[in-house]
Amino acid sequence: MRLCGVLYLALTAGVAAGSQDQEAIATTASISLGQVVVDTSGNALLEVTFTSSGQAISAIQLDISYQNQILGFSVAASNLLGSAGKSIWTASPQAGLTRVLIAGLNQKAIADGVIATLAVGVDAGTVAGFYPLGLANASASDPRGGPVSVAVSGGGVVVPGPGVSAPAITAVANAASYLAGPVAPGEIVVIAGNSLAESAAQSAQITAAGLIADSLGATSVLFDEIPAPLLYTTAGQVSAIVPYEVSGQTETSIQVEYQGVRSAPLQLAVGLTSPAIFTLNQSGAGQGAIVNQDGTVNGPGNPAARGDIISIYGTGEGQTMPPGVDGLIVTAGDLRQPAQGVTVSIGGQDAEVLYAGSAGDEVAGLLQVNARVPSGIAPGSAVPVTLTVDGSSRTGVTMAVQ
């Protein structure tokens, strides 16, 4: 894949960005399951962990899904729930699904920690592998009965055997901003976790059809069972491009498969767009991945002149016209424009947008925006730049202007 130097650095930056993904998710209350190996009798105990992220939550409801090989499980409240005066009720609205309600006759907030334990049993003779327990449809309320957003992350049990790995997703974030949030069709994302791929990093490959491959080594990423193009893989992090097929949905389920074993599914919200500008310091803020009018990389030592045309590189523009094709290397004769309008602000002033769409000879999902630096802004080495595509990019991205 032919990526210019600026963008190659920006896209591969995710290899070291896992901690930032975790920080982004930490702003939302969350419920997660662990993953454990079953004992010789096929039994295991999994902890359900709750993190409030500073929000007061007094009641929780969620669904736990499981495969046929799991005979069933019981849910027991932890001492933490008991001290808060909460109880657990369960129901089975359909096969392979258990609904859990945590509440009490009080308005006490639930403290962070292990709120419940699942006792899981696996059918005797089940082949070695990872068997997921998915969490979905989570809702919560504060002490006054108001709704509170809750993120979920499933887990599962491992039936041991030769060569069995148990991949696990811990975070998903925009590859440019390193922020979690709704994913958009064609968005380049980074997926943090464990046992996602072999330890040696692998870079994107081109198939015989001329597309970015949707598998690297023994790793693939699935959005609602649709394979996603992969830009790189490591054991702890993978970069993928959200398939355009999620367009029009409100939610998608992501899984990583490694050596034939899948992670627990993680439910993600889907938005029209999720715009972000790549940065050179690989943090999501600071000097943007911006090219000056003469083709050189913008920076404090190489500023753009007021009135010049610059190229800004980002991702998360959503569906395109004509519609995006997963993994397509877009040529100059087949450029695609965002279906949503694009605007740019530089130094707090609206910038004239001359072009917004595919970056020629780059993968679909990589956005190029050519904009004119406003003549009336004050020069500086860190002039703020914001990209809006039915939503604004992360603040804190800058460029140099003389």
Strand content: over 45%
The total count of helices amounts to: 3
Helix content: under 10%
Computed structural class: mainly beta
Shape: globular
| Major pleated sheet | 9 strands, mixed
What number is the mean pLDDT?
Answer: 87
Describe the overall structure.
Mean pLDDT is 87; it is low at 1-6 and 12-26. This protein has helices at 5-12, 18-25, 79-83, and strands at 29-33, 35-37, 43-51, 59-66, 70-77, 87-94, 97-103, 113-122, 129-141, 147-148, 150-153, 155-159, 168-174, 188-194, 202-203, 219-223, 226-227, 230-233, 237-241, 251-258, 261-262, 266-269, 276-277, 286-287, 290-291, 309-315, 320-321, 329-330, 337-338, 343-346, 349-358, 362-363, 367-372, 380-388, 397-401. A hairpin with an 8-residue loop joins strand 34 and strand 35. It is mostly beta strands and 402 residues long. 5% of the residues lie in helices and 46% in strands. Strands 23, 24, 25, 26, 30, 31, 33, 34 and 35 form a 9-stranded mixed sheet that branches. The chain has 3 helices and 35 strands. The chain folds into 3 domains: 5-22 and 167-269, Immunoglobulins (Immunoglobulin-like); 29-148, Immunoglobulin-like, CATH 2.60.40.680; 276-401, no CATH class.
